[in-house]
Specification:
single chain; 265 residues; mainly alpha; Cytochrome p450-Terp, domain 2; three-stranded antiparallel β-sheet; 3% strand
């Protein structure tokens, strides 16, 4: 009886044998545990290049900015799922993460994609200090979005009506680390020019700014939502922990159930 032959499945991420675990070409136990932060490792796993100290600071600032924002729909979904199935932490976390879309969390990727398209259409980019040049690219992109009947992702916030407190901090950290690239420059220009196109002033929200910052780090635009979900997992786990000792899920459920206004179809 001949031994079955299997195809090769190449990976540069991780492997293990009886005595060791290798991750990204390093011994996990000897070289990585206690030596690198989780944020550094997450960046490294996606790019397969070790980030610089400056990149880690910006990246982890983004993760902190996106981790928790109160009783959002994603948090409520996680808490109610945990109420219904307290034996399934993974189900509650998954329920919260599945709610990450174009209105909550997903705007991080949507903003990155919006900026990427505008940069690609612009061709040669202005110098870093050419605000007028960046403003013209932004003006064209915002005008095209308006003419197409689309919102500019990352503009406006349901709570922060004037300034999202995360946004100036993210810009500052990127500047301090020398990592304000074309995405953040264009995003800042969107903040400057959109009132003349839209006829009203909206804040650059933190989730959109996170998308620009992540894209400037060279992370794939198509995966930016994944980083928002990575960050929010920590917040959702916090909600589940709090639900154990100070539960509100039952009150949320009963508040809806006891106030149902049934109307005949």
């Amino acid at each position: 009886m001949t031994e079955r032959q299997y195809p090769a499945y190449p990976t540069s991420l991780g492997d293990s044998d009886a005595d060791s675990i290798t991750v990204l070409g390093h011994d996990l136990a000897a070289d990585l545990m206690g030596q690198v932060s989780f944020g550094e490792l997450a960046f490294w796993l996606v790019t397969q290049r070790r980030p610089t100290r400056e990149q880690v600071r910006v990246f982890e600032a983004v993760l902190v900015a996106l981790a928790e924002h109160g009783f959002t729909p994603t948090a409520i979904a996680a808490r109610l799922t945990y109420l219904s199935a307290p034996d399934s932490v993974q189900g509650a976390l998954a329920a919260g993460l599945l709610g990450g879309g174009s209105r909550f969390l997903g705007v991080t990727e949507d903003c990155g994609a919006f900026l990427a398209a505008a940069l690609a259409a612009a061709g040669d980019l202005p110098a870093a200090d050419d605000d007028a040049g960046w403003d013209e690219i932004a003006r064209r992109a915002v005008r095209q979005a308006r003419e197409a009947g689309r919102f500019v992702p990352g503009l406006g916030h349901p709570v922060h009506k004037v300034t999202d407190p995360r946004t100036p901090v993210l810009f500052r950290i990127a500047d301090e680390e020398g990592l304000r690239g074309p995405y953040l420059r264009l995003w800042a220009a969107v903040g400057r020019v959109h009132p003349e196109v839209l006829g009203r002033t909206l804040p650059l929200n933190g989730a959109g700014t996170c998308g620009a910052a992540l894209a400037d780090l060279g992370l794939p635009v198509e995966l930016l939502r994944g980083f928002a979900l990575l960050a929010r997992t920590a917040g959702l786990l916090g909600h589940l922990a709090e639900e154990r000792w100070r539960p509100v899920g039952m009150d949320i459920y009963l508040g809806v159930d006891r106030n149902t206004d049934y109307q005949a179809p």
